[in-house]
Write the structure tokens for this entry.
Amino acid sequence: MKSSTLRFAATLAALGLVVAACAGDADEPAAPAPTPAPAGNAWDGLPADDFLARALAGEFAGTAVNIFGSERSEVEVGGFTDTLKVFTEATGINAVYTGSADFEQQLRVMVAGNVPPDMAMIPQPGSIVAYGLEGAVQPVPSAIVERINAQFPVGTNAPYESGGETFALQIKTDLKSILWYNNKVFADGGYTIPDTWDGLKALSAKMIADGIKPWCIGIGSGGATGWPFTDWMEEMILRLEDEALYDQWVAGDVTFSDPRIIAVAEEILSVWNTPGMVLAVEGTIASTHFNQNATPLISGDCAMHRQAQFFASFFDSAGGTIGPDGDIGVAYFPAAGDGRTPVLTAGNAIAAFRKAPEVWALMTWLADSEGQTTRQVKQAARAAAGSSAGANSGYLSSNLEADRSVFNALEQSFIEILANASPARFDGSDMMKPERNRAFWDEGTAAVNGDKSITEAFAAIDVAARG
Amino acid sequence: MLTELRTRLKTRVGRLLLPSLGNSIVLVVVSFRVLPVLAGSPSLPQRLVAGALAGAGIAVALEAFRVAEKPPLRRAASLLLALGASLLVWYVYMDREGARAAILSVVIAVTLSGAIFVGANRWLDEALKRWTLFTGLTGAALLGLVGLGLVGNRSISLIVGASGERVDRSSWLVGLLALVGLAFGVLSGAVAGRPRLPVLVVSGAGTGALIGIFLRIGSLPSLELAPLISATLAVAVAAAVLARLRGRDATSAALSGAALGWLVGAFGIPELGTGALVEGIVGTAGLGLLVGLRLAISPIPDLSARIVLETRLRTVIFLAPALTFVGSALVIPTIRTMYLSLLDRRSQEFVGLDNFRFIFLQPSFLNISSWRNITASSEFFLFSVALVLALAVVLLRRRRTDQYLPPRLVISLVTAAALVIVTIAGRIGAVDLAATPLILVTAVMTIVVAIALVLYARRHPGNSALDGPGGGLLVIAVLLLSFAFFTNLRGTLMNNLWWVVTVTVAATGLGLAIAALADRSRGEAVAKSIIFMPMALSFVGASIIWRFMYISRLPDRAQTGVLNALWVNIGLRSVSDGAARSGIVLLVLAALLVFLGLAALRSRAIGSGWSIVLVAMFFAWVGARFMGGQGVAGASVIDGLTVISPIIFLDSQQFGAYNNIFVMIPFIWIYTGFAMVVFSAAIKGVPADLLEAGRVDGATESQSFWRIVMPQIQPTIGVVVTTIIVVVMKVFDIVKVMTNGQFGTQVLANEMWNRSFLDGNFGVGSAVAVILFLSVLPIMFVNIRRMQENAA
């Protein structure tokens, strides 16, 4: 009796374990729980029809989509979550967003471990294309790409294309070519924003003579220290050289050791290293965190700062107001004066790691004018709830059909700059392959810091790019 | 009560219990994997399975306790308990978030492990009693596990239903294969005599073919006759030869080898995913046929053979948890990493040693371009000065004790003095220290000193004049030499070596000093606890603390970092109105210290006397600066203006490569406590009668430390040093948190992480991991050798 009971129980237990182990072979996901992939490519046979319309008709109600991304600030996460709620209410598809500080590494681990999220918001087109080429990111059905591309300026989604496939859609646009300045300093000194880079240099020299620190610069950003310098490089290559060289350089056909690229770096660093030119709040440019530049600019300890449009929210949280009557003025970062008005952009694009109708429906909706408008409305509401009036959402859409009236005056001026761009180029370092991009950060920092000469540092980037 | 427990533990059940605990650790891991998956979409059947699982496990665990005696009442109680446990599981699965599910998974794992252990033992009992049942269960378990592996790796699958509504039922295959294995096992245990050969061969081939039917398209091989036959024959012959050499039966070994060779030839060599279904079936059926043949040629074992088998298998069960852990968490990943380091970034194409070539070509990884500056650096100059001072001290002490001057020491001193002269000549510009001939000369001189010293120390063990102040100065000299190396030879690899030298010397030295000084002093326990406390912090926590300590702010703002607040405020004090008064206080303090130092010197405490005088001189200098109003520390007066300069610790602009030292400090801070505790225990272990005897002979405190305690704790120093070296080699968190390798502070582990997970280049990432592994290996080897020597 005894032994038979035992045997039965032990067998049952072992069998139960086996069954349980078979239920899935997924590693425990770090962030969102993965939805099991359908067996085979069951959706391959489906016509590439309007998934969004079918979703809105309630066809996919009860399914779930998880989105992984790097956006972590309260306003951004809140705004995006509220946006997803609108989608969930309309379709019954449960969409959940998770943000992570170590987004890039974690996504890489999740993909390598075969438990990717359903969708991810990835800022680097280089990574998106790399994931796409290795088969992790699913190419967006052409019907969706056509529908969305018709709503955006030509070439918006070009950075995410490779081999005739589009791997992601841009759902958030960042405008980088912005000069922020202290209104009071400019009014007191009788300065005006120059039209050209040379004019800007002359203005800086005049400010130094007047005993004012012209620039606030800090390129620290934890593990990504150096990216504000890469922005400056891109900005200045577009201005001092042209977009043809820029494209070749980004693609790697022109190396960092190219004399034209070195010359641009020398131009930037000769300005930065001019005595009295730069205020670096934490001691050196390299060790000053980029977000530390808001406070001194508001207080007038320095006069100007170059940073993307998202920096508006840093002024908000540092207690500064933006606008002609506020503390901080905004202008287009001066061009070279040759008639071109180059604009540097960046953005966050959404890519799908799972082929499923509900995923395509959500992707379409997020990039579509309705989703873009909703995001701005929700995020502006979140920003206003968190601070004083006139808060900026930190969000920008270049969707031409999105409702412009939901953006405030400042944000509309950004959209204006975007619209007047000729040419507009996507942040080049984000389009480079990861080794090159990271070496650009690290070696760029070394050059800024004076640890290495520009030639030495840029040669090292070229060596790193060979991997 | 205790006696009862002890007798219980002595029973068979008690003996069963301990290995169960080992198993349960494995199962905790398993259940943490399984439960979230179950919890993902808990349908009713799944919940019931979970409930039955826990219930059965608990029931079996209780049964195990009652193996010796079992009144029916207890049995009923245990069944009730099982029922209750099932309900509990079901309830928790309803609300499966959070801690309850986690605790429950542990409970389930522990009971399950007991269940599996008891089950396994019962299974082995059958080997003696009912052989057919034993082979049947074995077959079911083995083929079930094979099925689990194949399904898990998506090699076989079962998709049912029409297109559009196809459902994955691959998990059924595990059950199916277990049933087939049961049948095959029963056959192999029951069929004897003439029918044994045909029955086993046919059923083996049939079983293989069954697996082949379910092979996924991606796993179908395109078979080629030549490699298939040659692999089969080659492994068969190799196995046969090996068996012959070991005096075993060659035929059965050849057949086992043939099965293995067939597996390799059918699925290892050809490209998978290009073949037809029939090729897959041939591949698996051939394997099954060979296995059947192998089993068929051995008769059913008699009782004595079964006893041997049973004993062996029981040992395996005891070892299984440990082997699972070591195998799955250590051996397999190591081999896999080595393999990956030879593949490209996506681990697809074989690229040979390209990854290693790539990483060594990176100037950020290894940059020896300024090697010529090593001897010309001020660190090298200071090194030679420290060397001469150390040797001078050694010689002086030697002279005091006996008049004989060993020639090796004299050679060292003369060479070191020559080294100083050369470097001084270089510093005043008379010669070019970066010229190749001079670099060679200085290198040779350094080596001569080192060899002479080592020879001297070996000749006079335990009675060497190198202990005491001379030894201390020598350690400083070695550190300075390493600084001369590592500030000129840069890169990730060099940083790691620098860490090893600096952190090991500093943590071991400080730990030893504190342990020796605190020994038998008042407040020893309190002081040691405080110093040991950082050991309780994680590296990440310590790094964050030190980052806060290091923070610098603009000169015109309040410094929020502790160190800079001190630095700047002392500076501000020195240029403030009351500076002169503070200066006088400092000068008086210095005078007092000088008085104290002289008193110490008079009572022949040379070392402490000079240290006190040195501190006094420092105070006097600071006091003079205060009086003069020129400013010290974070403030200096230039052209009548006060300039405040906070220290930017982690940036390379102010300190060059020395910012690495500030990254190392948290590590030293933590590991000093570790070294101190170990040394303290070792010092307390030195026999009191030895110290007593020394004291009777008139040894001073410092003499008895250097001559009695040090030789006694020699092995402990070895253990502490090797342990710290291994931990330092792997350092990751501190660098990740403090600088993330920026500003020239990168180390191997962080480089590995960045290459793998930021660049997505698993080839280069694995190559860095292999480099790290290979560099730790010699130290591990030494460590293990030492342990074995101590054991022997």
Observations:
- Chain B has 32 helices and four strands.
